[in-house]
Amino acid sequence: MNTQPNTAAARTLAAQPLAIITGASSGIGAATARALSDLGHPLLLLARRVERTEALGLPNALARSVDVTDAKEVAAAVREAEELYGHADLIVNNAGVMLLGEVAHQDAAEWERMFDVNVRGLLHGVRAVLPGMIERGSGTIVNVSSVAGRRTYANHTVYSGSKFAVHGMSESLREEVSGHGVRVITIAPGAVETELLSHTTDEAVKADYQAFKDSIEVLVPEDVAAAITFAYQQPQRVTLRELVLAATAQAA
């Protein structure tokens, strides 16, 4: 993929406005990138593993290696993409880590990592695009959370706390910006077949969760990407404030 497109050509080729996706190298992020590309959107794909986003081979896409916990890196990548493709109309804050474990034994560094990525990283994405959206009176912010941001599960204490924070921030942000024509949407998936579980370092907890996933037919990333694109494609005057989706066989 050409990560240095010609500015004039990029603006001419883009049939739709710029969409930004964090955590775009795999799973829900990669599936969403493909879905939005199919709809004609130029893309800014942010992930630490830039070779994975480049390997998606999507047209009109700028891939950048960015750590979402670094506000300056996020803002610089957004500026670069907007110079190429015009203003960002959508950001999908998808980057996240899930480090399951018992609070009594879990390394506190894992707690910090989850809040850094899942909360602060999300806010950095919001801040990079929101002033422009407010100025234009239009735009959509999609925050990818989890059903664990709506209910609790054993061994999810800190992860769940970070996702409850996403829900709370999203609701409050929506109230702040609704009068400016900006939409805020929370997507809360249940168990999804992604790499997310691989982040967990507690092997016993990981095995238990994997056994649960193996016992039912969980969501695939394309299911979540379809929900994101459905919500985004609604008229700008319509906000689907929250979509909670899970495998039919997932009881809780």
TrEMBL record:
Key words, A-Z: Oxidoreductase
Pfam families registered for this protein in UniProt: adh_short (PF00106)
InterPro entries: NAD(P)-bd_dom_sf, Sc_DH/Rdtase_CS, SDR_fam
Entry GO MF terms: oxidoreductase activity, acting on the CH-OH group of donors, NAD or NADP as acceptor
Superkingdom as given in the UniProt entry: Bacteria
Family membership: Belongs to the short-chain dehydrogenases/reductases (SDR) family.
Name of the protein this chain belongs to: Oxidoreductase
Annotated organism of origin: Streptomyces noursei (Streptomyces albulus)
